[in-house]
Amino acid sequence: MRYLIILTFVIIGFRTAAQSLIAPEDKNLNWKAKLKKADDLYTNGSFYSAIDYYHAVLDENPGYPDALMGLGMTYYAARDYQSALGNFKQAFDADNDRYQMAHYYWSLMLKMTGDYQKAFDELKVFYRAYRGSDRTMKAIAKAEYDGCTLAMDLLGQVDETVHVHHGGKTINAAYTELSPMYYGSDNKLLYSSLRVEGDSIIRLKKGGGKMPRARVLSADWNGERWTGSSEVDAFNDKRYHTGNVSFSPDGKKAVFTMCTDDKGKDVRCDIYMSERSGGDWGAPELMEFNDKKANNTHPALGMYRGKEAIFFSSDREGTTGGMDIWYTIFERNAWQNPRNLGRRINTLRDEITPYFDIEEDVLYFSSNGLPNVGGFDIFVSKLSGTRWAVPVNIGFPYNSSVDDMYYVHNSKRNRGFFVSNRIGSIALKSPTCCDDIWSFEIIIPPVFTIMGHVYLEGDETMTPIADANVDLYYLHADTTLDIRVSSSDSMFAFFRGTEYENYRLEATKQGFIRGVGTTSTIGLGPNDDTVYVDLYLKLIDTGIIVLRNLYFDLDKAYIRPDAEPSLDTVLQILTKNPNIQIELASHTDCRNTYEYNEDLSQRRADSSKAWLVKRGIPEDRIIAVGYGEQRLLNECECEGNKVVPCTDIQHQVNRRTEFRVVGEIPGAIVRYDKSEVDYAIEHGKRITGGGINQILWNFEDTPEEPEESP
């Protein structure tokens, strides 16, 4: 796919989609002559013409393996992977000894159409069976099936914060758009486009004919879409194809590519630089480090070892594969001889479209030689001193089963562009024929924090209470999610990541009744990432609380069903406050003897205690006392020297069950050590919720680069 790699625009030569390319004088040729014509057209890069001739051959000689293989290769070059797949399969089935490479390309097309498992299986078979003369083929096949494994793994790890969109028809057309780059601000875009009049198919042709030129355009973001695409005269020259513009951080230098396609000559690209003085760009100057015998393209200004650098792609002598990434540094007032970036980055195949993030010291580039999920994938590697980390595939949805390249991001790193021929691009022929600019946006859900203080209820000074335990729960759950210890000079804070939930918070401290609060992150937006909940503790009160509606049958001590709600109130208090100890007191009216009433009240108190113990409250937390008629609430007297007659309602006031807090159970509240909790928070031991995955860079076995340029 050299036509793509050299220019990274599919240029030169075009025809209308409906027009047949079988020349009238060729229609009467026999099938062998048409096959030779098809092969010549393929070799010269006239892929769509070649396709018509191969089909003409197969119309006359169905199933002929040479024509099937040629047609498959031509569809592959035209990036019609679905059509190529079937032709490679037929060629391999027709003669699998002679067309062993058809097996490889069939497997590759399975991969590039997203059938990763089938592609993996077939590539493994090819790898084991290959006996060809190309010594690199096994390594290439292994990288491809490793890529299938990677793809199947990455499909389960798609970053849902990354949203990818087609760049729109205001910057894309049914041609080829390339090299997007922010220009001066995040609201101005520079890119290259090859645009011709009419509905035309664009393809490579080696020399001959009048051809359209790729040129640099600019567009502005109006808040909804990119608008006003217009040519940028400073970087365009009617004699050349221009593109791949990259700027220095101060915006005073620009490097870019100019490519020639003179009649009878191969396409060649060189790198130029312009400098801006005031508001005007100076005339482009050809960089001295260009190799006149090779292609020099995709320049990207960056830094290397603290010095200004240009990273670029070239197939010059010393290249590992087809196209490698090279770099040159500026020192001693000159750009030094370029150096190959090394085998950590470059492979037996092609590495192109570098982009260097100066602030992060990371290099983005595209490769079809590293294990990929299909075609060219975008990779990233970090520079540390002179060592490059093992390149990391940035995964879906940036990458796809087809070609993805020209990654670039904005100053905030939350938006950017890349170029892809994935389905959804504006297509002239097959759905994957043409490169378009795609945009991405990283939309990170709010990372929620729940914060607050613990106060004493009724304290008008609102002085925060220190050293209270604060436990976080889901609203209707009893399992602690996380813990904090309150402070008098700072708020407690629970970090919940991107979790949308309802929560309950409970504060406890020795000597206090538990404080409870609730909150929720459901429905909150990006600007509402912190919620505040204050909790209020009550000092343990030894006052008496009367349990209403706790009735017993006459002369009975068992708990009636209609009395259970009152006891359930006590149960909840004891459950929520495991530190308190209560006295559960039962009283009678004065009717009947003193001894009888005392016995009856004790049995009723014991019965109430038993009900609570049965439901999980430890016995030592409840002191059951029957007071009989010792503590009447009115003047009713039924025996002795003074008898005061009373109505039934007056007697009923005296028949009651009460409870009061009489103390605390030692050690019932486990006091969390604040320093231990803070240490756990600092080291991430208790923090839950989402977050942005960070790359763990691997510099293992990375060779050091020499300090001196050659």
First-residue to last-residue Cα separation: 32 Å
Q: Tell me how many strands there are.
A: 39
- The helical percent reads 10-25%
CATH topology of the largest domain: Neuraminidase
- So, the CATH homologous superfamily of the largest domain? TolB, C-terminal domain
Sequence stretches where pLDDT stays below 50 over 5 or more residues: 1-20, 197-209, 683-694, 702-710
Structural class: alpha+beta
Query: What is the mean predicted local confidence, pLDDT?
Result: 85
Q: What would you say the CATH architecture of the largest domain is?
A: 6 Propeller
- How many discrete domains? 4
Supply the number of helical segments: 12
In summary, what is this structure?
The chain folds into four domains: 12-157, Alpha Horseshoe (Serine Threonine Protein Phosphatase 5, Tetratricopeptide repeat), CATH 1.25.40.10; 167-201 and 211-442, 6 Propeller (Neuraminidase); 448-539, Sandwich (Immunoglobulin-like); 545-664, 2-Layer Sandwich (60s Ribosomal Protein L30, Chain: A). 22% of the residues lie in helices and 30% in strands. Helix 4 (65-77) packs antiparallel against helix 5 and helix 7 (116-129) runs antiparallel to helix 8.
